[in-house]
Design goal:
The chain has 371 residues and is mainly alpha-helical. The protein contains twelve helices and four strands, in the order ββαβαβαααααααααα. The protein has two domains: 94 residues, 2-Layer Sandwich (Transcription Regulator spoIIAA); 222 residues, no CATH class. The chain is elongated.
Length: 371
């Protein structure tokens, strides 16, 4: 890496020679100019690259310094004295101007972050309440026949959440029934009350676990699907197109999904209760030496129809929660590449959290009302 400067007839000639490697320090053009002895003023800068060996972008970095020096002092830059490939690369390097980065923002204080989180929570609460109101008005209009719902979307949701969900609901409900029966068999046998395992299985499945586990399954399966579908439509501007045409996305996209899931969840809960009880009966018959008649008798004696209907009611509420959570997060999807994934994740988390909260509230009200 060799650089020599010589002055003649108001022209500064820069001799560039040797091998240039980006791993070595690039000479500073300004320092070399200042080191020149005093003499007549310079009007232009030329180059002599006859002794130049192998080179890389370090040559361009040095020539860029020379070009900047010419621009700053009003000198002429003789690029024709450079090899063609270097001259072309230099033109390319100067074609795109340097981008000025904005100054780094100072980190916000704890009070500012707390305020931002509060404003974000307020905005989210307002958006959720507004969405719930729009869905409620849509259902009222549907009941009064003032809203035309897309029934094709409705039947697609019904099919997806009936036969399409049977497999996973069967598996999970059967295993939950087995677990409850195993728990009863282990604990109740210590007190000589193994007979009451059937009561534990029936009460647990009909009143609690059947609806709860079905709700969690559908939140992960259907809630995420709703958010992904509407999120993809939001990114591709299909929802904006509906608004441009004067059509309500809530009426055309949200109502069919929420109504379909609201109607199918009670049926799935009834099916899950039946499968769970079958799983519990299998354990009771095999481990506790109970007959099927004894199990069914022990189930029907203390467990009432109210318990089963209470679980079905929970299923309907959970269906509303899952459908509205999935659709809300889908409509709130951003525009970046990972927005759909975040919307689906947020829909599942929101739905499961609200399901557990709603289950606790309904159980609390049932105790107060002695249901």
């Amino acid at each position: 890496m060799q650089v020599d400067l010589r002055r003649s007839d108001r022209v500064l000639t820069v001799d560039i020679g040797g091998d240039w490697d980006i791993g070595q320090a690039v000479p500073r053009f300004e320092h070399l100019v200042r080191a020149l002895p005093a003499g007549e003023s310079i009007q232009s800068i030329g180059f002599d690259t006859e002794d130049l060996g192998q080179w890389d972008s370090s040559v361009l970095a040095f020539l860029t310094q020379a070009l900047d020096h010419c621009d700053a002092h009003g000198l002429e830059f003789h690029s024709k004295t450079l090899p063609d490939e270097i001259a072309r690369l230099l033109v390319l390097a100067r074609a795109v101007p340097e981008q000025e980065l904005p100054p780094e923002e100072t980190p916000a204080t704890a009070v500012a972050r707390f305020g931002e989180q509060g404003l974000s929570a307020h905005a989210s609460a307002v958006a959720s309440i507004t969405f719930i109101g729009e869905v409620g008005i849509g259902f009222l209009g549907l009941f009064l026949r003032r809203v035309r719902m897309r029934w094709r979307e409705f039947w697609v949701v019904v099919q997806s959440n009936s036969s399409g969900a049977i497999g996973i609901v069967t598996l999970i409900s059967f295993l939950v029934g087995l677990i409850i029966a195993f728990l009863g068999a282990v604990v109740l046998r210590r007190f000589g009350a193994g007979y009451y395992t059937s009561y534990l299985v029936g009460y647990g499945m009909l009143r609690e676990m059947g609806a709860l586990m079905t709700g969690i399954i559908m939140a992960g399966r259907t809630g995420a699907a709703f958010a992904a579908e509407l999120g993809s439509m939001k990114i591709t501007e299909e929802i904006d197109a509906l608004r441009t045409l004067g059509l309500s996305p809530v009426e055309h996209l949200v109502l069919p999904r929420v109504l379909g899931l609201f109607l199918m969840m009670p049926l799935l809960v009834i099916y899950a209760d039946f499968i769970g009880i079958m799983g519990g009966m299998m354990v009771s018959v095999s481990l506790l030496d109970l007959s099927m008649t004894q199990f069914i008798t022990g189930l029907l004696t203390p467990v009432t129809l109210t318990d089963a209907l209470f679980g079905v009611l929970k299923g309907s509420v959970f269906g509303l929660i899952i459908g509205m959570s999935g659709c809300l997060r889908g409509l709130q999807t951003g525009q970046d590449a990972g927005a759909v994934g975040r919307a689906a994740t947020s829909a599942v988390v929101t739905a499961i959290t609200l399901i557990i909260f709603a289950n606790a509230v309904m159980d609390w009200l049932a105790v107060l009302l002695n249901v």
